[in-house]
Specification:
The chain is of the alpha+beta class and 279 residues long. 25% of the residues lie in helices and 37% in strands. Strands 10-9-7-16-15-14-13-12 form an 8-stranded antiparallel sheet. A 6-stranded mixed sheet has the order 3-2-1-5-6-4. Strands 8-11 form a two-stranded antiparallel sheet. 25% of the residues are buried.
Length: 279
């Protein structure tokens, strides 16, 4: 009886490891809580790990509670381009089930593939540019000296990083008080702190940060949640849509260098602007 008990325990452990692919730590989130305990209110997404046997018509999911794997029909989801990413064995995934048939998943998201750093390129505008007439805008850009364009009209990378435990951070963020002297302004970038999935949609949490003098302490106020649809998810590309507009992102793992370049650009523009004022 003793040996039978040991055999059963070992067998169960083997099954769990096979399904989890060495990623069992993904199930545990902030302060030791399970991912399901941190779900947003009203979120009906089913979370778990992809098991062996997933294909274009079926997803086999090991639920977060460690119960037996469950098979879901995803044939229509594939046909309707509602499988985001390419789930592999052990990947953390989320399923939105059909409201009339709980064995069918209408949407599949590979959350492990969604995690990472996603960027896009932005260009600055002259201050008060939007308050000018279109004719004046064109004339200003036409008559602007090349030296000014080279100094101030510099593209920057924006983006965000989606991490474990539903945490997030902004990429390319520069403190606003460093930019007041610059004659150009960049689109506003949210200061992201968290992310979630809500019934198949991506929810990004951001706020307004206040930095201490040494920038080591940050307080955040006016927190808000922005919701968008995941239109496409590939290994190196992501498309999100909200309010009838979409934006494409590319994957970039060099967060440190992106932030360094953003600060260097801001510092250069600030120094040039101060020099122009003095002269």
């Amino acid at each position: 009886m003793k040996y039978l008990y040991i055999y059963i325990i070992c067998l169960l452990a083997t099954v769990l490891v096979a399904c989890r692919g060495g990623k069992s730590e993904e199930l545990v989130s902030r302060k030791g809580k399970m991912n399901d305990e941190l779900k947003l209110k009203g979120d009906k997404t089913v979370y778990g790990l992809a098991c062996e046997g997933c294909n274009d018509s079926t997803v086999i999911l090991l639920p977060n509670d460690g119960s037996d794997p469950v098979s879901y029909d995803v044939y229509d989801a594939h046909r309707n381009h509602q499988v985001m990413g390419k789930p592999s064995v052990g990947d953390w995934i989320g399923l939105v089930l059909n409201p009339e048939d709980s064995t069918v998943a209408d949407l599949v998201i590979d959350l492990d593939e969604l995690k990472g750093t996603w960027c896009y390129v932005v260009m600055p505008k002259m201050r008060d540019f939007d308050n000018m007439s279109e004719k004046l805008q064109k004339r200003m850009m036409r008559d602007m000296p090349d030296s000014i364009k080279e100094t101030f009209m510099i593209p920057r990378e924006y983006g965000f990083t989606l991490k474990r435990q539903w945490t997030a951070q902004s990429v390319g963020y520069v403190q606003e008080n460093n930019l007041r002297e610059s004659p150009v302004v960049y689109p506003k970038l949210g200061y992201f702190t968290a992310w979630h999935i809500w019934n198949g949609k991506l929810v990004m949490t951001s706020g307004e940060p206040t930095f201490s003098q040494n920038s080591k302490e940050i307080s955040i106020k006016n927190m808000r949640n922005d919701t968008c649809d995941i239109v496409f998810l590939g290994h190196d590309s992501l498309v999100l849509a909200s309010d009838g507009q979409s934006r494409s992102y590319y994957r970039n793992s060099d967060v440190k260098n992106i932030n360094k370049k953003a600060k260097e650009i801001a510092a250069k523009q600030k120094a040039q602007a101060l020099d122009e004022i003095k002269n």
